[in-house]
C-alpha cells in the first residue's frame, strides 16, 4: 500500500491573508494530495482550518525556521509591500519587504531545493508600448516597480527552481481586507457617489481565480521561467468601471472620466500596459474567464 502522505505536495503560501493569498489558501485547503502551510503578517489566518504561523519575511531567521521546519516542495510568494504611492516615500521598508524578503525566501527555498513561485507586476514596464510579452524590456517608472524588478532579477540569478508570474490589476471575490476595484465601483455607485476613473491607464484586469488556476498548472507541470497571467480583455479603467456598472445595473453617469496626470499621485503609473498571455495559454492551457463571467462569480460569492 502506498502511504498517501508520501505523494502529497507540500505547499507553503506566503502572504496568505492578502487578496490573492486568501484565494490560494481557500483553493489548496480543498485540494487533494496537498499538505498546506500558510504564513502572513497578521497574528491569525482568516481560515481557521489552515495550518498557520505569523511571519514577517524580512526576518531572515524566522523565514529559515518556517521553510526548514515545513520543508515545502513549493513556496508561493504573494507577500509584498503593494501600496504603490506609499512606496515612493517609504522606500526602505518597500525594498526590505519586496527585495530582501524575496531574497530570504529564495535562499531557504534553494537550501532545500524547493520551487519558488513569485508574484510580480506589469509595473516593471514604462507603459509606453504595452501590452507586454515575457521578453519585453522592463523600465519601471516608480519605486514599487523597481523593487519588484529587483526581486525578479535576484530570483532569476539565484540558481533555484523558480517561476515568476507577472500580473496586473487584480480583482475578485476575496472576502477579507481592502475592497478591490469591482467592490469599490459597486459600493460607490450604490451609494450614489460620483467616481472618477482614468481613461488613459490600459491593462487586462486579472481575476484572482485565474491566477490560482495558473499557479495550479505551474505546480502540476513544474513549469519554470516567467509567465504573464492577465485577464481576457485589454481595457481602460474607465471602461472597466462602465462594464461593472452595466452588469450590476448601476448608474453609469456617476462614472466620470479623468486623466492619470490630473490625479497628481506620488507614483507614476505605466499607461499603455497589459500583459500578453500567449505563452501561458500555449504552455499551461491558461484560459481566463470573460469579464462578465467573473462578475457573475463575484456577485454570487459576495452577495454583491
Ligand atoms: N493587486 C494588484 O493589482 C497587483 C497587480 C500586479 C501584481 N501584484 C502582485 O501580486 C501579489 C499579490 O498581490 P495582492 O494584491 O494579493 O497583495 P495584498 O493584498 O497587498 O497582499 C500582500 C500581503 O503581504 C503581506 N505582507 C506585507 N509585508 C509583509 C511582510 N514583511 N511579511 C509577510 N507578509 C507581508 C500583507 O500584509 P499586510 O496587509 O498586513 O501588510 C498582505 O497580506 C504581490 O506580489 C503584488 O506585488 C498585485
Kindly describe this structure.
The chain is an alpha/beta fold and 304 residues long. It has a domain at 8-172 and 206-232 and 273-288: NAD(P)-binding Rossmann-like Domain (Rossmann fold), CATH 3.40.50. It has eleven helices and 13 strands. The strands form four sheets. The protein has a seven-stranded parallel β-sheet with strand order 3-2-1-4-5-6-11, with helices on both faces. The chain has a two-stranded parallel sheet with strand order 7-10. A two-stranded parallel sheet has the order 8-13. α2 links the parallel β1 (9-14) and β2 (34-40). The radius of gyration is 19 Å and the shape is globular. Bound molecules: NADP nicotinamide-adenine-dinucleotide phosphate. NADP nicotinamide-adenine-dinucleotide phosphate is lined by residues 15, 17-21, 40-42, 55-58, 78-82, 97, 101, 119, 121, 148, 167-170, 177.
